[in-house]
Amino acid sequence: MENVKVSGACLCGALRFEVELPTLYCAHCHCGMCRRAHGAGFVTWFGIPQERFRITAGAEKLVRYQSSEHATRSFCGVCGSSLFFATTQRPGQLDVALANMDGPIDRAPELHVFIDDRADWVRIGDALPRLGGPTGLEPR
Question: Which among 40, 41, 54, 126 is least surrounded, fewest beta carbons within 10 Å?
Fold first, then answer.
């Protein structure tokens, strides 16, 4: 699926974007910050090199929030949809919330990260690898 472009949008449609495949990975994140930012038990992100990402409409609606000393989360200023995550720990890469895509990407979720931080009420019924520990990325 190289050079295929997949579009996405926020809930209200004011902010639209596209990514050019292939993606770098796709993972379910269970960290407390992601859970709170999305109001969900976990969020599914996929990574894309920044140069293969483009906002196609509503760039002025994008709001950025520095959620930690090294990370920024972006959302629609109209409807509040959580959209993107960037960290200085992975320069040149952008994480995109899979739920905001209009169509399929080139891979299914491959693993769970920050599994030790998962909500007590979340039950995982798949056999995907689970990473946790102090960094959230260590094999469990």
Answer: 126
32-67, pLDDT tens digit by residue? Answer: 999 999 999 999 999 999 999 999 999 999 999 999
How many structural domains comprise the chain? Answer: 1
Structure tokens, 86? 């960037």
CA separation for the pair 48, 45 (Å, rounded): 10
Residue 120 burial by Cβ neighbours in a 10 Å radius (0-12, 13-18, 19+) = exposed
Is the separation of the CB atoms in 115 and 33 below 8 Å?
Answer: no
- Asked if 82 contacts 68 with a C-beta cutoff of 8 angstroms, the reply is no
Q: What is the pLDDT of residues 6-42, one digit of tens each?
A: 999 999 999 999 999 999 999 999 999 999 999 999 9
Q: Give the C-alpha separation, 12 to 73, whole Å.
A: 18
CATH number at residue 97: 2.170.150.70
Whether 138 is in a domain gets the answer no
Specify if 22 maps to a domain: yes
Strand, helix or coil at 35? helix
